[in-house]
Specification:
It is built from 3 helices and no strands. The protein has helices spanning 2-5, 15-28, 34-71.
């Protein structure tokens, strides 16, 4: 389970809790695998964060393009 703690593309909120849930789950194997559920949630959270960051970058890029358009010299034809 060390790979859960060392994940860099996403973060499991509470690895120890997930491992504890997994220990109980392996005995009964009923319901969803807690590791799968935790990874799915972490990936979902990371995807949402990436979307927010991309929207911020897009807005900043659009603002810079507007500012640049205001100061670029116009060519005379």
């Amino acid at each position: 389970m060390a790979y859960l703690a060392a994940a860099t593309g996403f973060a499991i909120a509470d690895v120890d809790a997930v491992i504890g849930d997994l220990e109980g789950w392996v005995e009964s194997a009923t319901g969803p695998n807690p590791v799968t559920a935790a990874v799915d949630q972490a990936v979902s959270d990371a995807t949402a964060d990436l979307g927010r960051r991309q929207a911020s970058v897009d807005a900043e890029s659009a603002a810079v393009k507007r500012e640049t358009a205001d100061v670029e010299p116009r060519s005379v034809a």
